[in-house]
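Dear colleague,

Thank you for sharing your sequence with our group. We've completed the structure prediction you requested, and as agreed, I am returning the results in plain text so they can be pasted directly into your records. Please verify that the sequence below matches your submission; if there's any discrepancy, let me know and we will rerun it promptly.
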Amino acid sequence: MPSTRMLLLATASRLRSRIRNGLADATAQVVTEAELAAQQLQQEWQLFWQEVCLEAERLEQPSAEASGPEPSPASPSRRAPAADERRKPEDDSPPQPEPATGKRASPAQVQETIDQLRAEVAGLNQRLEQSTL
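Please find the predicted structure tokens below.
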């Protein structure tokens, strides 16, 4: 039977080995998840900017221009949950801009559009958080 000293050295050696392997596995898993999260974040960011560009093009049309105070981004949206509920969760396509009408958008319509954009951002954020957990 090995001596007590040899058993202690062997125990320490095996513990170091297991800890190293465990750390290596955990590090590899964290790196893989971080890469996936970065890819998903990039995809969501690109989708968001496509939606923003479509909305900007729609708002630039002369018939869709509206003048009015711009609400601060920190202000809560009263219609955000309703706008978010209208969109199907499995629908990954960006929302299509509404067709321009021959009249100017009212401040209420502009606010509704802003609320819908905020709801979209909140939905994207929620999907991103759920996919990274």
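Summary note from our side: Residues 5 and 11 are 10 Å apart (CA to CA).

Kind regards,
the structure core
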